[in-house]
Amino acid sequence: MVAYRDFITGFRKLDIDPSCPVVAHASLAAFGEVHGGAGSVLDALVSAFNAVIMPTFTYKTMVIPEVGPPDNALVYGSGKDTNRVAEIYHPGMPADTMMGVVAEGMRTQAGAQRSSHPILSFAGVNAAEILDAQTIDQPLLPIQRLIDDEGWVLLLGVDHTVNTSIHFCEHLAGRKQFIRWALTSGGVVPCPGFPGCSEGFEAVAPHLEPDIRRIELGGAIVQAIQLVSLVETVCGMIKRDPCALLCEREDCERCNAVRASVIAL
Ligand SMILES: [Zn+2]
After folding, report:
1. How far is the CA of 163 from the centre of ligand 1 (A)?
2. Which residue of 32, 90, 136, 200 sits 20 to 30 Å from the alpha carbon of 259, by its own alpha carbon?
């Protein structure tokens, strides 16, 4: 069993300047039995780092319109059933279960704040300026703010397929982005700057090897990478190969739309 103290000790071993902000992604289950559960992981994160954010995305607000712009990796009019069960976004909406119990715990952590994007919100502690950087048109600007502040990505028992910052690198590299739509109390809101598919992101791992810091904890791996290194590596990969980090799934609409946009250039 691992506990709060083990996370604190582990985070210290990563040798990250505690004044640097972090964006964390976590699977509690990966650590086996954790004394105190998600709360222990959260307390350790908040204690070890000056500012911490986590994605608290709410895909359940998404609706598919009847019509929309072309080349958007979306079958317009196909949402007749799913639109009916979509939920209106509100600031107290729980993060989707796929975000994990640690992210959801961050949202309700004492002193936590949450950004207001109806699909791609982040929650964090001591991170008001980072969260405020988000706009409806540029949902991943909090990551730019982290880059500016020499921030780090922490992967707690998860791999790069959940590393949201790679999406921001794709944006910086000029990769095609998408528009999605969210149900809000003010009606259906278009959300541009929506990222592509992350299923192929683990292919970045060997390229990050010189810069990654890693510890083992409770049978899980904790990895840390400074954002400036991540940006340099991912943008370099996409510059060399505009289809880098796309997934292999033949019917992946977003990866195929990116491939088509590359051919069109
Ligand atoms: Zn894909």
Report:
1. 14
2. 136
pLDDT digits (tens, 9 = 90+) for 107-154: 999 999 999 999 999 999 999 999 999 999 999 999 999 999 999 999
125 CA distance to ligand 1 centroid (A)? Answer: 32
Would you call 150 exposed, middle or buried from its count of C-beta atoms within 10 A (0-12, 13-18, 19+)? middle
Distance from Cα 223 to the centre of ligand 1, integer Å: 23
Residue that has been written with the tokens 């791996």 in this structure: 221
DSSP string, 26-84: E-SGGGSSBTTHHHHHHHHHHHHSS-EEEE---GGGEE--SS--SSSS--TTTTHHHHH
- Whole-model pTM? 0.97
Q: Which residue has the tokens 């936590």?
A: 112
Residue range 70-82, pLDDT digits in tens? 999 999 999 999 9
**89 vs 59: CA distance, rounded Å:** 10
Interval between CA 121 and ligand 1 midpoint (Å): 22
